[in-house]
Model the fold of this input.
Amino acid sequence: MPSSGVLWCPPESATKIGSHEVTRRDNPTLGYRPAIDSYEIWNGKSWADRKEVLAWGAANQLVMRIKQTGTQAHEKWIQFNDIDHISSYDDICSVHLLSSEGQYQQHDTEHLIFGRVRGDIAQIAISPSKETYEYQRRFLTHGLRLDKTEISNDTDRTLAAHFENGSIAFYDTATESADIEPFARYRPEGVSRNKYSKLLSSSLVAVCTGEVHDTLSISKLTPDGVSPYRTIAADALDTDLTSLKSKVNISCIEPLNKHVLSGSPGEVFLTAWDDYTVRLHDLRSPKPSEVAYKDVSDLNPIYSLHAFGHNHFLAGAGGEAIVKIFDLRMCNTYNYLDAQTPKSRPHNPELKDQTAKTTNRIAPRNGFSLFLSNQPPPPFGQPPNRRQWEAYRGPIYTMSTPSPSSPTVYAGIVDGVVRLDFASTDDLTGPRKEWFEQNLDLRVNTGQEFSTDFNTSTLNLAGYERPDEDDLSTTSVLRRQREFWKTGPADAGLESGTGWDRRWEHLEEPGAWRRQDELVH
Done:
């Protein structure tokens, strides 16, 4: 269970690189959606010698936080911008840190690829100590406006640029040219410009068509181009089609390339559908989906999916600032060996799922849904207004984890980033609490002092345990966190019996919060 949440924003002392005397050419009415990336490496002789880098696009600026722990401990914040006259088309919509890779690991240089909505995609090197930057390569888009970029995490590092007109361009990041042309382009037929697409691996790409009979189209990517490979149809799923809209929508996709069940990169992945359900797919199986996950207490669409560790994934809701925690370990989980394609299956380049609807769907364990409600910080140099004192109730747009073993998740909300740390009570209060405080940056409030520094303020979280999808009688009860100084010996004694750390308030009696029968129509 998450033990700490911190709202991140760059301090006023952040180092500014590039141009920061800007003139705005429009008046945006909505906040920015942060594109986030992060990594961590161990760069010393002890486990404590760790470097963590977080980067996100804050409108036209790139924000970076570099923290070194151990013998050479230090922290530095950077704000980068190189545009004098800005508009919403200059917003950064994608960020990919490269310095965790061997060829880009340098003592005082951060390498990254970032893209702006207007269509600029570039690789840049930033020196925090010298306060300088250098453009190294540009990925040519020929004037197309950019929706997002993705980079595969397998051996062949392919960059995919998804454009607002629905087309996708693929680039080889190993090319040493200063100006890089795409080696392949893909424009799905009959797909509208606002449909979701995802790079599953360097050899697989998925596109939502919006149609019932071929909802998800998966294609093979080779140096010779893009060719059809597989389709997944909504009318073959284990669901009542009336729960889906006339134009079926998939809002996000997350590959599970690091999971123990995965095979070749891109074969196992999660999808979020507009019936508020997340489904797990295995391309080695003839079935359209293997497992379904759903929070019946919340009917917000899913805006983001994120694989967390080796056994969990997180789903960011489109409203109420909800992050849903799901466990991939099930009592009767499918065996990936049973998901192998039968020998008689033809090698059709466009194989469509004609499988009948699954009747014995696997029921995952119930999980926990978490509210990231907080009071956002006012802009630098401006007094807080009424809106800024209201708790956040918006979407969770993006999520990032520094490494598969990291207990930290960075969640992108409107105009900011929230850091979540998952740690046990022993981590927070045990004999090695100083080690966890330094390395996990938990910033736990163990005293009555109150910090007005938004950059270091810890959130008191709240959430609810989800009932079973078919259980309409169980009431979801809201749990809240409190400061450590408000807990006592009795709370510590309850930890072993309940499994909840002492900051989570004990529930004496069941109480109503959301009635399930009121949510089902």
